[in-house]
Amino acid sequence: MEWREQNGIGWLQAGLPGGGVAFSTRSAGSLKESHAAFAGALGLDPARVATARQVHGDRLVIHDGPPGEPVEADGHVLTAPGTAALVFTADCLPVAVAGPGGVAMLHCGWRGLAAGIVARGCEAVGATQAAIGPGIGPCCYEIGDEVLGAFAGLGDGVADGRRLDLSEVALRLLAGAGVEEVESAGLCTRCDPERFFSHRRDGGPGRQGGLAWTEAGD
Question: Can you say whether residue 181 is alpha, beta or left, with left for phi > 0 and alpha for psi between -120 and 50 degrees?
Fold first, then answer.
């Protein structure tokens, strides 16, 4: 995963089998308002980037062509060449997984992780690789008994007292789905107001995100 910049917009980018993923920063503005500048910096047509109405669940939408109208979902599965999808985040994790069946872009808050969205995304594409973008870190994510209980089965090390490590949760769920090749940004959105929006810190509407794509066909 490496930092890239174009037209004053900076992002983290990772390669994936058959595609790639980019994780935005505040320099692209709030993607929920408009993702045109970010998509343009990546050389993608904004009109061909699929989005959804995120509800912190585990539903996936399959894209085998140009995007349709957004529906309620928290994950996108890209099965056709030259397709792209975006999830919005502001402390939740953007997680991209890829394999011979395509690329999936997942919005992973604690509810989606507990519901099994990682396993569903990995199964949909036969995932062999993954990339985890910036999200709230264990330094800042203090939670209650309900959330602790949801991940108790993952064993020691996912929480320190009442502070949950979402990235570690995602890593263990990916490993459980057979994905061992994983890049993780390791950046806390709440700790870094210059680069990232954070719902816990700001409470505002600003959103960065993860934008994944499949390579164009011949």
Answer: beta
Would you say 90 and 72 are in contact if contact means Cβ atoms under 8 Å apart? no
The structural domain count of the chain equals 1
Distance (Å, rounded) from C-alpha 216 to C-alpha 81? 5
Report the residue count for the chain.
218
Three-state DSSP at 67 gives coil
Instruction: Report the DSSP pairing between strands 129-132 and 181-184.
Output: parallel
Helix pair angle (166-176, 117-125), 10° resolution: 40
What domain range includes position 184?
2-214
Q: What is the CATH number of the domain that holds 199?
A: 3.60.140.10
SS3 58: coil
Q: What is the pLDDT of residue 218?
A: 57
Q: Are 213 and 86 in contact (CB under 8 A)?
A: no
Average pLDDT, consecutive stretches of 10 residues, N- to C-terminus, the chain (218 residues): 96 97 98 97 96 97 92 97 97 98 97 97 98 97 94 94 96 96 97 96 95 87
CA distance 76 to 87: 8
Q: Does the CA dihedral 101-86-197-121 come out positive or negative?
A: negative
Provide the token pair at 140. 């800042």
Predicted TM-score (pTM) of the model is: 0.96
Rounded to whole angstroms, how far apart are CA atoms 62 and 66?
11
